[in-house]
Structures are given as C-alpha cells and as structure tokens.
Amino acid sequence: MRWPKRWSVLLAVCLMAPGAGVYAQSDKPANNGAGAGPSSKAATEEEVEQLRREVAELKATIQKLVEVNQQKGADGAKLVEASAPISSSADSAGPATANADPGAGATVADVDALQKEIEVLQKKAGDTPPATSGWNGEHFYLKSSDGNFTLMPVGYLNANYIFYKGDGAPSDTFTISRARFGVQGNYGKQLDYSFLFETASSLTIRDAYLDFKPWGAFKIMGGQYKVPFSQEVSTGDTNVEFNDRSINTVLYPDAAGGFRAPGFDVHGDLIGGKLQYWTGIFNGKGLITNNTTNEPEVTGRIRIYPFKDSDNEMLKGFAIGGGAEHSRSRGLSNELSFSGVLNDGAYTFFPQFLINGGISRYNGHFQWLYKAWGVRGEYTQILEKRDNLGSLVASGVGFNTLPGVQGKGAYGMVTYNLTGEREPENAIPRVKHPVIGPNSPGETGGPGWGAWQLKFRYSWLEGRAPGATCDATTIPACPITPGIVPKFADHTDQFAAGFNWYLNYWVLLKSEVHFDRLANPSVQGINPQNYYVVLEGIQFRF
Fold first, then answer.
1. Burial class (CB in 10 A: 0-12, 13-18, 19+), 45
2. Which of 172, 99, 140, 156 is nearest to 344 (CA)?
3. Phi-psi category of 35—alpha, beta or left, where left has phi over 0 and alpha has psi -120 to 50?
4. Rounded mean pLDDT of the chain?
5. 504 and 375 part of one domain
6. How many structural domains compose the chain?
7. Sign of CA dihedral 415, 419, 420, 423
8. What count of other Cβ atoms lies within 10 Å of the Cβ of residue 171?
9. Are 251 and 277 members of one domain?
10. Of 4, 59, 92, 291, which one is least surrounded by beta carbons within 10 A?
11. How would you class 417 by CB atoms within 10 Å of its CB: exposed for 0-12, middle for 13-18, buried for 19 or more?
12. Is the pLDDT score of 9 beyond 60?
C-alpha cells in the first residue's frame, strides 16, 4: 500500500528540528502518485489503529511546538480555531481518522485531509508575533508582546489670537490656552490609566487616574480628573467645537481648577447602554488641593438614551440627563463665590463674595445628533451660602448670616458639517478627505479640502447676591456691630458664531466671533455696553 509511505513523508515534514519545525510548510498536498486516489485499497483495522496512535503522537508533538512558539512572543490567540481540538487521546485523532469506519479502513484521501489540518496548525503556530510598537491609526503606542500592557504618548496644543473691541476690554493678544503632554494606556482589559501634565504656564498635573472596569455596569475610577457633573465638562478638551466652552462653565464644580479635583467615583452602563451613571466624592477645591472641611464634595450624574435601539435613525442620537452636586465652603480659608469673568476675558460681569457653608448645584442637559447635525443644550444653577461670615464692617465684632449667592445660566448650540462627516458624540469628526497627513481612522478617502463645520451658540448667565441691613439696636438677633450689605443682580449673554476647518483628524483651525452683551454691571468703572471679540485658533493633537 502507498499510504504508509505518504504518512512517513508527512511525519518527517512535521517533525523537523524544533528551530524550524513549527514554521515548516508543505508547498502542496502529498502527491498521490500513479494509480492512487480515493479508490485506493483500504487499510486493515490494525493499520488504522496504528495510524490513529501515530496521529495522536504527532498532534501532541505539534501542540508542544505551538506552546514553545507562544512563549517566544505569540499573541496568545487560539491556534487551532479552524481544526479539531488537540488531544493526546487516540480517539481525538481528527475527523479523517477518528471517525473512520474500521471496516472500511483509511484511504489516501483521509491522509490528505489530515495533512491539510496539520498545515493549518503549522501556519497558526508560525504566525508572526504582534508588533510591540507602531501607529494604531490614532496614536503611537508601545505594547508588550502579549498585549496586556499598552503605553501611548498623547498631547495637544491650543493657541489663539484674540481681537477685542469695547471700552475697557483687554488688549489684543496671542495666548497658549493649553499645552499638555502625557501618557495613557491599559494594564490588561480591565485597568486603564492616564497621566497628563499642563506645561503652558507652570508644570501642573491635570489628569492622573486609574479606571478599573471589572464589569460594564460597575467601574471604579480614582485619582485626579474631571468631576462628573455636566455634559459640557465631560466633552474632551480637544473635542470642544468652540475655542472655549460656554460662559456657564463658571457655575460648574472646580471651575478654577479645570473642573478637576482629587477623588474617586463609580460609574457604568445599564440597560444595554441606555442609561449611564456616575457618582463620587472629591476634595472639591481644584487641582491637587486638599479639602478645607470635613464634608467632601458629593456629585452624581445620569444620562439616558431612550431611543438607542430604535429603528428611526433620527431618534437614536437623542439623549437627556442631569447632575447634582453638594459641597461646603470655609470662610476662614477665604473661599469666594463663583467667578464672574467671561471665558473670552472681555470683562467681569459679577463680583466675587466671601462664602461660608453649603454649596448646591443642579444641572440638566440634552443632545441630539443626526448625520452631520449636532444640537446640544444645558441649564445650571448654584447656591453658595454665606452663614456666620463675621462682622460686616472693619474691626467689628460678632457674626452675620447673609442670603446666599445665586447663579443661573444656560446655553444652546448647533453644529453642521458642510462636508458630510457624521457628528460624533464626544470625538473629532472623521475627516473624509484630509488636506494634509494620513487618513482618519477607518477612512480611505484621498486628499481633498478637509472637513468644514459651521457652528453657533447662544448662552446667558446671571448672578444675584441679595443685600441685608442689620442693626443691633432694633433687631436683637443682629451682632453688636451694625452693617449694611448692598444688593447685586447682574446679567450677561453671548452670541458666538463661526466655522472650523479640520485639515485632518489631528489638526484643526478655529475661527469665531463673540458678541458679548453686558447689562447691569456691578464692577466699578464699566458701563452697560456690547463687546466684540474675534478668536482665531489652532489645535494640534497626537
């Protein structure tokens, strides 16, 4: 019979020296020779049993070679996906022999089928180990050979030139609003990390956290990062369509510290991603700053996608949500109420006051994304108490409790991608035809004019600090020293419009005009008037 000879050849090919055995490949199936074929004479039952034993030994040897190859840098993927499980048992010898009818015996066709199966094993065992460095389509990376540890250098730069027009407005100037660099990556599939430094002014830690993700519905994040309160803050700094966020950001927690503070939270996705939640505790005093009271900042936020599974594409991108926050201020630490400086720096619409006691914030937001359209909006209010502040006059004695400082504001914005890119929820649009550089991840279009986006936003903001009059001679509850606190009630709003030019997925030019209206100003020397601000900016990230 010819099949024992063919088997001997096959066995010799597969059992070459370990240095090359796993990578050995047969150029073609065993040559049947003249007169050989499916109709060849069948083997005896004894020969079939011998073949089964030899196949079992062969597969065991191949398995050992595969394991050696894995230890030398294979990515750990399953190596026998297209074949039967490898076993040292004779009964698991493979579909060509284990299922053969002893009465019918084994044929050359059976051996050929076995050879093809072994070639699959050889190919998988000899696959080139995965790259441990390179470009993943969006970031450079370094990675361990097993893929369990990844490190990616990341960074971004935002530079602006600002033109002002209005009495008392600042001088025109260049600014570097952000110059950040750091690393991010993962340890396995359940632990992400990030370290990000600000270098524009002085070296400062912006983000430093670990995100442990044992389940999709329950994740734990700890370190310093953005406090989960509003939709606007949750948007990545490089994904903000305007040169800066809305004027309402002065009402958000830790606004003076880039909306970041040390702390931890739990978060996750429920109901198939239709409901997202965040709840946590933080110092509540900004970047790398200790708390000043025995009461931490407590915050929570939810976000609902009611039509996520809908067949109607117009409804899928709709989401609503809200947040709440409570913290406490300490007057002895000279803590002040929210800042009244507009984010474009044109003027200060509302003064700051010494505060002491509870701080409460509430927020509601929505978004609607459909193809090239993006519509977003948000409302926020705050109450900062002024309890037992001390005397209202210099060198006075006693303590006074005043009505709290109140702030309210909202914004609504619309964006439209003229070049047809889909509006993402929290990312840069995938530029279809970049002007320079490589294609966006997942895109294959050739060079072109980049992506063009129109944008418009309206926002308003008001602040109130009720006054008080207290005279101990007429009001027994007043302290010994009388005093009068004036009332403040001020309002401002802003129209912002312009366009963005995405040269590619990593380089963005921003151009916009602000029309700021100041009403009832409290700041001495500023009259009610309108201000015009033109901002030209560039953003680069990697």
1. middle
2. 172
3. left
4. 82
5. yes
6. 2
7. negative
8. 7
9. yes
10. 4
11. buried
12. no
- Three-class secondary structure of residue 207 per DSSP: strand
- Please report the pLDDT score of residue 528 as a whole number: 87
Alpha-carbon distance 57 to 435, whole Å? 60
- Confidence at residue 75, expressed as pLDDT on a 0 to 100 scale: 46
Alpha-carbon dihedral sign for residues 498, 410, 172, 540: negative
Tokens of 126: 């000899």
Q: How many CA atoms lie within 13 A of 119 on its CB side?
A: 13
Characterize 175-207 residue by residue with b for buried, 16 or more Cβ atoms within 10 angstroms of its Cβ, and e for exposed: eebbebbbbbbbeeeeebbbbbbbbeeeeebbb
| Segment 442-453 mean pLDDT | 92
Residues 154 and 52 in one domain: no
Q: Are residues 242 and 156 in the same domain?
A: yes
Residue 118 pLDDT exceeds 60 = yes
Phi-psi group of 259: left, alpha or beta (phi > 0 → left; psi -120 to 50 → alpha; rest → beta): left
Identify whether residues 95 and 178 lie together within a single domain.
Answer: no
Domain membership of residue 39 as a residue range = 3-125
Report whether 541 contacts 370 (CB < 8 A): no
Helix and strand numbers, DSSP H then E, in the chain:
6, 20
Angstrom distance (rounded) from CA 291 to CA 328: 9
| Residue 61 · residue 121 · CB < 8 Å | no
The DSSP secondary-structure symbol of 354 reads B
Max Cα–Cα distance, the chain, nearest Å: 125
Of 125, 156, 176, which residue is a domain's last?
125
Regarding whether 269 and 166 lie in a shared domain, the answer is yes
Write the burial class of residue 48 (CB in 10 Å: 0-12 exposed, 13-18 middle, 19+ buried). buried
| H or E stretch at 18 | helix 18-21
DSSP 255-278: GGGTTEEEEEEEEEEEGGGTEEEE
Last residue of a domain, one of 64, 96, 125: 125
Average pLDDT over residues 408-412: 98
Question: Which distant-in-sequence residues (6+ apart) come within 8 Å of 264 by Cβ?
Answer: 220, 221, 222, 223, 280, 281
For residue 452, which amino acid is it? W
In CATH, what number is assigned to the domain containing residue 457? 2.40.160.10
How far lies 440's CA from each of 139, 168, 419, 424, 434, in Å?
11, 44, 14, 14, 8
Q: What is the pLDDT of residue 104?
A: 46
Confidence of residue 464 (pLDDT cuts 50, 70, 90): very high
What is the 3-state secondary structure of 105-170?
Answer: CCCHHHHHHHHHHHHHHHHHHCCCCCCCEEECCCCEEEECCCCCEEEEEEEEEEEEEEEEECCCCC
Task: Indicate whether 532 and 455 sit together in one domain.
Answer: yes
Output the pTM of the full model.
Answer: 0.75
Q: CA-CA distance, 501 to 485, in Å (whole number)?
A: 50
DSSP per-residue string spanning 35-61: T-STTSPPPPHHHHHHHHHHHHHHHHH
- Collect all residues with Cβ–Cβ distance below 8 Å to 498 and sequence separation of at least 6: 242, 454, 455, 510, 511, 512, 513, 535
